[in-house]
Amino acid sequence: MIAALLLLAADPAPVPTPPPAAEAPAPLPPASVADSDIREYAAIVGRKAVGKPVGGPFGTADKVLIIARDDKGYPDVAASFGFPARESLPPPPAGTLAVVRLHQKPSVVMPGPTDDDLAFVAANRLPLFVIGEWTRPAPMWEIAWLDGAVRYRTVGEVGEIGPWRD
After folding, report:
1. Which of 10, 88, 143, 145 has a 20 to 30 Å separation from 161 between CA atoms?
2. Could you tell me the pTM of the whole model?
């Protein structure tokens, strides 16, 4: 009996190894086309900012709103600031779902999204809403990365959308 105990003590039973911990899923990148609630929120909050002054060191600044979701999942303005007119926007912070940019003056060639706006979407694959402050009611465009290209469409006063254009 003692011999059996000594054998068991000398050769312990293998300890089962725990299964490997499941890796946490990577966070999903933001959608390249805004959800309808984001589009409607951008239409409402963006147009409320039309005509309001921009504080800061820029004399003729565009207004920029960063749209994210609050802790309850609703769209919210995570940040707002003035940015030099007709300059390319920097990459947005993590967690951004869309960006709203209010231009004070129309493009020289054609009112609507500028080449910088289109380049921002191409680089970041993130929806950008452009609102023109030069007329009332303020026109609005949604720019998105769709089917491997930058496309844009008009957005009406309460979020209704037009067809995509190149």
Report:
1. 88
2. 0.77
